[in-house]
Amino acid sequence: MRSWQVSEPKPIEQDPLLLKKVPKPEPGEGELMLDVHYCGICRTDLHIVEGDIAADYPVVPGHQVVGTVSRCGPETDRDLLGELRGAYWLHSACGECSYCLRDEENLCTDPQFTGLDVPGGFAQRMVVRTDYSVPISASISPAHAAPLLCAGIIGYRSLRLSEIQPGERLALFGFGSCAHIVIQVAHHWDCEVVVYTRSENHQRLAREMGAVWVGEAGDEPQLRADSAITFAPAGPVVVEALRAVRPGGTVAVNAISMSDIPQFPYRLMYHERTLRSVAHVTRRDAREFMQLAAEIPVETQVQVFDFEKLPAALQRLKDSEIDGSAVLKVECGHLD
User: What is the reported pLDDT for 333?
Assistant: First the structure.
C-alpha cells in the first residue's frame, strides 16, 4: 500500500512529506483494519509535519479518518466487517493511571495519538482500536464526516468546557474548520453566537451561518457573551476573549499549541471569570458528538484534495486559503 510519511520535520515549503510504498498493517487483538476513504487535513497535522509538535519520526500523520472495516484482529467482533467507521485523535489511553480511573482519559499519562504515536490516515489502510473508533451514520457522507472526527469532536468538548447553557450567548474567536461546526451545535441549543475573526471570507461565512454580530479580535464587544471559545493559536486572543465575557463567564482555549499569553490586568479575571484549556478528547466526546451530528444534522463545508495533492493542501492550509475543512480523498483499490 502507499502512505505519506515524514522522516525529517521541516517547513512544508521544503517538501518534508514523502509518498512511499509500505506493507499493509496487521490488526492485533481488539483492533480493526480500515480501508481509508477520506482523511481530514488538520492544522495539527501541519504542526507534526513541520516539527512544532514532536513525534517519533518517521510518522504517518492524519487523525480524521473515515474507512471501511476490511479485517478484524483476534478476539474482535467480526460483525464489524464492512462497517463504515471513524478514527480520531485519541488512539488509546492506558486505562490504569489516576486520570483514566477518573474518566479523564484525555489527560492520560501514557496515551497514544493517531497520526503521531501510531500511523494515521494519510495512507490507504490503517489499524485502529475497536473501542477507540466510532460508527459513521449513513446519513452523513464519508467526505463530510471526516472533519467531524477532529474539528467536530474537539469543538464539542470545547462547548462542554465553556459551560455554555441553552439560550445563552457564545463568542467564537476564529472561524475556521472547528468553529463552523461549533456554531451549528450552539444554534441547535438555541444559543446566540458572536464571531471575532480577521478574515473577510470567514466573516462572510459567519454571517451566512447566523452569527448575530461579527467583528475582529480587539473590537469593543458589542454583545457581552456568557462563554467564549478561542481557536486561534495566538496568546493575545485569550486576553480579548476575557474582555468579551460577562462576570462569571468562562473562556475555553482550544489550541494544542499557541504563542505566549501576554500579561493582562487582574480585573479581566476578576468577578469569577474562568479561564481553562481544552486538552484532547475522550471516547465519550466522540460517541456523543457523532450521535448529535447525525441528529442535528451538522453540515460541513469541505474542500476535497486528491491523494497525491496532500503537500499542496497543507501549504494552502498554512496560507489560510481553506474555507471550511480540507479533506484528503484516498481511493484504496486504485492506489495499491
Answer: 56
Exposure string for 50-89, b = 16+ CB within 10 A, e = fewer = beebebeeebbbbbbbbbbbebbbeebeeeeeeebbbbbb
Residue showing cell 469569577 = 272
What is the C-alpha to C-alpha distance for residues 125 and 35, in angstroms, rounded to an integer?
5
Q: Does the domain at residues 2-149+281-335 carry the CATH identifier 3.10.129.10?
A: no
Spatial distance between the Cα atoms of 43 and 261, rounded to a whole number of angstroms = 20
Q: Where in the chain is the domain with CATH 3.90.180.10?
A: 2-149+281-335
222: left (phi over 0), alpha (psi -120 to 50) or beta: alpha
Correct CATH for 152-277 of 3.40.1190.10, 3.10.20.310, 3.20.20.140, 3.40.50.720: 3.40.50.720
Query: Is 282 a residue whose pLDDT tops 70?
Result: yes
pLDDT digits (tens, 9 = 90+) for 164-186: 999 999 999 999 888 989 999 99
Residue 325 is inside which H or E element, if any? strand 325-329
Q: What is the pTM of this model?
A: 0.90
Give the three cell numbers for residue 49.
509535519
| 320 has a pLDDT exceeding 90 | no
What residue spans in the chain does CATH classification 3.40.50.720 cover?
152-277
- Are residues 316 and 305 in contact, defined by beta-carbon separation less than 8 angstroms? no
